[in-house]
């Protein structure tokens, strides 16, 4: 719900003097953000399904990469989702600050367009 409200408010802010062009851009941003959210969810579900030790950084990078390729809205959604997840995980998982830092590095790598295979562990099934 909060994401929907944020997207709606951001859409309104994005509207410029050129109403139709602004609405189109705002609509595209929202569309890209929704698609980017789906990309992030797909990467997360694939990570759970693969259940492969050492593959989490690959899935972090891949989700962010796929989302960011959609455009500014996708990149925005990937950053918000990644930051919220890492904030929540760093408080409750017990994995520590180093793991959070490495996850965020993989997230940023993917969002900048870096090849997610940089983090792909040897032996991860080609399905992923």
TrEMBL record:
<dbReference type="GO" id="GO:0006953">
    <property type="term" value="P:acute-phase response"/>
</dbReference>
<feature type="signal peptide">
    <location>
        <begin position="1"/>
        <end position="17"/>
    </location>
</feature>
<dbReference type="Pfam" id="PF00277">
    <property type="entry name" value="SAA"/>
</dbReference>
<keyword id="KW-0732">Signal</keyword>
<dbReference type="InterPro" id="IPR052464">
    <property type="entry name" value="Synovial_Prolif_Regulator"/>
</dbReference>
<comment type="function">
    <text>Major acute phase reactant. Apolipoprotein of the HDL complex.</text>
</comment>
<keyword id="KW-0011">Acute phase</keyword>
<feature type="region of interest" description="Disordered">
    <location>
        <begin position="87"/>
        <end position="128"/>
    </location>
</feature>
<protein>
    <recommendedName>
        <fullName>Serum amyloid A protein</fullName>
    </recommendedName>
</protein>
<keyword id="KW-0345">HDL</keyword>
<comment type="similarity">
    <text>Belongs to the SAA family.</text>
</comment>
<dbReference type="GO" id="GO:0034364">
    <property type="term" value="C:high-density lipoprotein particle"/>
</dbReference>
<feature type="compositionally biased region" description="Basic and acidic residues">
    <location>
        <begin position="108"/>
        <end position="118"/>
    </location>
</feature>
<dbReference type="InterPro" id="IPR000096">
    <property type="entry name" value="Serum_amyloid_A"/>
</dbReference>
């Amino acid at each position: 719900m909060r994401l929907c409200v944020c997207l709606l408010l951001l859409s309104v802010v994005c509207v410029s003097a050129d109403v139709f062009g602004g609405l189109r851009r705002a609509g595209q941003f929202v569309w890209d953000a929704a698609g980017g959210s789906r990309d992030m969810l797909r990467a997360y579900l694939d990570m759970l399904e693969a259940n492969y030790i050492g593959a989490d950084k690959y899935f972090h990078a891949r989700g962010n990469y796929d989302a960011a390729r959609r455009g500014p809205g996708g990149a925005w959604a990937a950053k918000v989702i990644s930051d919220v997840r890492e904030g929540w995980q760093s408080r409750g998982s017990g994995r520590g600050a180093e793991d959070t830092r490495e996850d965020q590095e993989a997230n940023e790598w993917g969002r900048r367009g870096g090849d997610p295979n940089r983090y792909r562990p040897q032996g991860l099934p080609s399905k992923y």
